[in-house]
């Protein structure tokens, strides 16, 4: 997923998308031997979490959602740091609720790493195996091997204050993996890094997760992290699952305003009839797909062209009068937020924006390219 666009106007879809949205999701992994099978029901004050998660060994699942959606609550429940008030938590067929957190085969990489400041990198990594009864010499040897795999062999003797953010993150990952967990939990693992470091560490993390044979659950609000690192994305809003599927499925067919903004699409919900969708309480949008019944329709901002005067010719019939609500730079383009009968977001070149003399409050005519408007079942 890339980009963040306003202008998505759909209501939330079902807690799990239609069958076409769930390929590779719980229906498949639930039947596999081993792996994670959980329904996490937990309450914190007035907030209630109710999230079902299933993942096969070797699968990386990303929990994606806005702040306050319940992602971290779900991670804490998986780690045993927050008791469940309902549901179940099974890993490789074993009920984890009966085991205290410290004895569970779970590794956690926290957002701020939580490395022991008084221990060197090698002793931080060796800490887990030592707690599980491994002799000191062997634990340190294994820790050095892990640091070598992370490209940190030359930093084994450094304490956390002598490490960069990216190096500290890799030490934290090595420490989690050194216990050979059957469930690896990553809590916003790249959030504390600057943009350049994040790019490098994300690539390294992808490499290590590709070779991880157990289940990994990544909690993030960054769509790019989810798209690059995960095999499957589970979108959580207000404590429940609103969409899940492969990264491509979620990016191509968003089902909520939040997801649409993340992937940079205009999104509406309505009733499809042939190659048109009548938006709930609004106008009709021509689409490339032939569909009947409740539907979503989505298209990128680049599919919306703007005109200073009402166009003539083939685009005139579908032209919509709009007012410019705001403008912002979006890479090498200008993103225009439009209000009107059909609120829209459009991307223009800087030259086109200048020629139209766009400014807040200006009136323009918008035309949506029907060939790029895709309809799918709600």
From TrEMBL:
Signal sequence bounds: none
Write down the InterPro entries for this protein, in alphabetical order.
AAA+_ATPase, ABC_SmlMolc_Importer, ABC_transporter-like_ATP-bd, ABC_transporter-like_CS, Mo/tungstate-bd_C_term_dom, P-loop_NTPase, Transp-assoc_OB_typ1
Q: What are the Low complexity biased-composition ranges?
A: 7-21
Please list the residue ranges annotated as the ABC transporter domain: 33-263
A GO molecular function for this record? ATP binding
This protein is called what? ABC transporter ATP-binding protein
**Can you tell me which residues the record assigns to a coiled coil?**
none
Task: Name the segments for region: Disordered.
Answer: 1-32
């Amino acid at each position: 997923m890339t980009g963040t666009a306003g202008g998505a106007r759909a209501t939330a879809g079902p807690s799990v998308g239609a069958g076409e949205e769930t390929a590779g999701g719980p229906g498949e992994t639930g039947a596999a031997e081993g792996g994670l099978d959980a329904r996490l029901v937990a309450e914190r004050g007035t907030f209630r979490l109710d999230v079902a998660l299933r993942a096969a060994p070797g699968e990386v699942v990303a929990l994606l959602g806005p702040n306050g959606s319940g992602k971290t609550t779900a991670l804490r429940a998986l780690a045993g740091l927050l008791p469940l008030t309902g549901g179940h938590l099974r890993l490789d067929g074993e009920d984890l609720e009966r085991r205290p957190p410290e004895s569970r085969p779970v590794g956690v990489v926290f957002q701020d790493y939580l490395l022991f400041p008084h221990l060197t990198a090698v002793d931080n990594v060796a800490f887990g195996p030592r707690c599980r009864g491994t002799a000191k010499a062997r634990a340190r040897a294994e820790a050095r091997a892990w640091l070598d795999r992370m490209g940190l062999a030359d930093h084994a003797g450094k304490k956390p204050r002598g490490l960069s953010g990216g190096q500290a993150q890799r030490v934290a990952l090595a420490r989690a993996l050194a216990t050979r967990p059957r469930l690896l939990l990553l809590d916003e693992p790249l959030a504390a890094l600057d943009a350049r470091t994040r790019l490098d560490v994300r690539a390294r993390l992808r490499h290590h997760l590709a070779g991880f044979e157990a289940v990994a659950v990544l909690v993030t609000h960054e769509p790019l992290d989810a798209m690059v690192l995960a095999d499957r994305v589970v979108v959580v809003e207000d404590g429940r699952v609103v969409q899940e599927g492969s990264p491509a499925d979620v990016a191509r067919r968003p089902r909520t305003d939040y997801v649409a903004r993340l992937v940079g699409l205009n999104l509406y919900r309505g009733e499809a009839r042939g190659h048109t969708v009548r938006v709930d309480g609004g106008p009709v949008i021509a689409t490339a797909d032939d569909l009947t019944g409740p539907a979503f329709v989505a298209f990128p901002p680049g599919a919306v062209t703007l005109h200073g005067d009402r166009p003539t010719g083939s685009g005139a019939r579908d032209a919509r009068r709009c007012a410019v609500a705001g403008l912002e730079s979006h890479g090498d383009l200008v993103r225009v937020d439009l209000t009107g009968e059909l609120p829209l977001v459009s991307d223009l070149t800087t030259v086109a924006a200048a020629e139209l003399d766009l400014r807040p409050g200006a009136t323009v005519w918008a035309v949506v390219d029907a060939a790029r408007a895709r309809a799918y079942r709600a």
